[in-house]
Backbone:
C-alpha cells in the first residue's frame, strides 16, 4: 500500500515537472521568464522532496528483500536438514517450515519487483531533476541577459527623451526672447550712461564753482592783509600830520 501511494505521488510530481519543463515561454516578456523560473524552482523543490522520499523507500525495500532472502535460505536449510536426518519423527516440523516458506517466497518475489520498479522510478526522478536544474540554469542566464537588455533600452529611451526635451527647448523661441531682453537692457544702459554723464558734468561744474569761490576769498583775504599792512607803515601814518 505504501509503495502504491508513493508511486502515485511520484507520478504526480513527474507530471507537474514535465508540464513546467514543456511550458512555452514568451521570451519577449521579462516577467513571463521570471514566472517560469519561479515555477521551475517550486517544481524542483517538490521533486527533491519526492526524490528523498523514494530514496528512503528504496532503502527499506532493499532491506526487506535482503531479510526475506536470508529467511528463505534459512528455511530451505532447516527443511532439508529435517528431511535428511534419518529421523521420521521430526518430519512434521519440516511441513510447518515448508508452509512458512510458501508465504515467504511470493512476498520476496513481490518485493523484488517493487525494488526493480523503485529503481526505475528513481532513475526517472533523477533524470527529470537534472533536466530541470539545467533548464533553471539556462533560464536564469537568459533572464540576466534580458534584464541587461531591458536596462540598456530604458537608459537609451531616457536619453532620447532628454534629447527631445532639449531640442524642444532650444527651438522654442528662447533665442528671440533673449535678443529682445538684450535690446531692452542695452537701451537702459544707454540711458543710464547719458544720465551718468549729465550728473558728472554738473558735479564738475559745482566743484569748479567751489574752487573759484575759494580763490576769490583767498585773493580778498590777501588784499585785505596787504591793505592793512600798508596802512600800518610809517609813511602812511605820517602823511596826515604833514597836511
Residues:
Amino acid at each position: 500500500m505504501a509503495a502504491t501511494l508513493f508511486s502515485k505521488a511520484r507520478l504526480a510530481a513527474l507530471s507537474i515537472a514535465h508540464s513546467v519543463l514543456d511550458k512555452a515561454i514568451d521570451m519577449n516578456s521579462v516577467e513571463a521568464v521570471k514566472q517560469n523560473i519561479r515555477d521551475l524552482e517550486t517544481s524542483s523543490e517538490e521533486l527533491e522532496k519526492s526524490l528523498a522520499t523514494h530514496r528512503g523507500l528504496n532503502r527499506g525495500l532493499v532491506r526487506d528483500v535482503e531479510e526475506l532472502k536470508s529467511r528463505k535460505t534459512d528455511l530451505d536449510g532447516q527443511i532439508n536438514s529435517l528431511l535428511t536426518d534419518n529421523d521420521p519423527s521430526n518430519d512434521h516440523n519440516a511441513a510447518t517450515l515448508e508452509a512458512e516458506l510458501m508465504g515467504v517466497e511470493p512476498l520476496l518475489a513481490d518485493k523484488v519487483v517493487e525494488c526493480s520498479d523503485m529503481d526505475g522510478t528513481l532513475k526517472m526522478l533523477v533524470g527529470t531533476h537534472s533536466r530541470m536544474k539545467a533548464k533553471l540554469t539556462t533560464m536564469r542566464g537568459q533572464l540576466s541577459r534580458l534584464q541587461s537588455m531591458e536596462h540598456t533600452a530604458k537608459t537609451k529611451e531616457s536619453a532620447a527623451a532628454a534629447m527631445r526635451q532639449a531640442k524642444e527647448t532650444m527651438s522654442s523661441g528662447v533665442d528671440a526672447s533673449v535678443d529682445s531682453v538684450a535690446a531692452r537692457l542695452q537701451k537702459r544702459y544707454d540711458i543710464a550712461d547719458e544720465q551718468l554723464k549729465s550728473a558728472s558734468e554738473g558735479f564738475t561744474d559745482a566743484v569748479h564753482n567751489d574752487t573759484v569761490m575759494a580763490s576769490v576769498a583767498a585773493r580778498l583775504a590777501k588784499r585785505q592783509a596787504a591793505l592793512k599792512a600798508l596802512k600800518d607803515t610809517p609813511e602812511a601814518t605820517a602823511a596826515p600830520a604833514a597836511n
User: Anything to note?
Assistant: Residues 26 and 32 are 6 Å apart (CA to CA). The radius of gyration is 60 Å.
